Structures are given as structure tokens and as C-alpha cells.
Amino acid sequence: MHLVYLQNMPQLHAAWGWTMTVPSGLGFSCSEGTEIGGGASASFDCTVEPDANMKCSVETISVMCSKAGVTDTFNPPDGVCLNVGHSPGTDSNDNDSTLVWSEVPSCTESNSLSSGASRGAALTVALLFGFMLSH
After folding, report:
1. Which residues contact 65 (CB under 8 A, 6 or more apart)?
2. Which of 66, 93, 104, 122 could bond 87 through an S-S bridge, CB–CB 3.0 to 4.6 Å?
3. Residue 49 maps to a domain
4. pLDDT of residue 49
């Protein structure tokens, strides 16, 4: 009888890794860079940074795996996420997953400048009115 010691055996992961490019033109970027994800030990989180004069609906999003026929998404290294497959470009490729964002931020123009200007205008009118009443 032979005993095989497997305690330090590496875990099996996809050879390709999982990355997504941050979309442009949606009013935000990720503080981590333009490509999020990577291999099994990579971070799949994006800290949302609104573009100038924009505000966004969320502060963080994540790269997730969406498997065909399954409603729940998961962190790519935590399951079998075959977004590339073992035979890319062939009819027999076993890719059954796609990478998606946990949420796409909704970013809109920030009204902080216009609301500040409105308050300033209202204050000016009030001061002028008060000045006119005192004279």
C-alpha cells in the first residue's frame, strides 16, 4: 500500500484568468485601473470614481461570473467559470459563462454647483431686499 501526501497540492483553477475592461463614457472609472480581475488571487472589485461633475449610484462594483441557465452570479475563482473554455474558436468549446458587473453604476451630472449658485442668488436677493427696506 502506498500513501500519497496531498496537503500542499495546488488547487485547480482556470489557466486564463478573468478580467473585464472598465467601460468608458458611462461617467465613472475604477480607482484600481482600466482592467479589473485576473487570476485566482486577484481582486475583482472596482472602487467607483465618478467623472468630474458627476455622481454615481454606487461606490463599489465587482466582476462576477454568470453561468448559462443559472440566475445567481458568483466571484469567478469561487466556482467553475468557463468564460473562455478549453477549445476557443471551435464548435465543441465548453464555454458556458460570461463575465458581468455586479451592477452598472448610474452616473448623472452633479447639481452641487447649480444648487450652490441658486443659494448664492437667493442670498443676494435677500440682502438687497433688506438693504432697500432699511433705506
Report:
1. 18, 73, 74, 75, 76, 79, 81, 83, 97, 98, 99, 100
2. 93
3. yes
4. 98
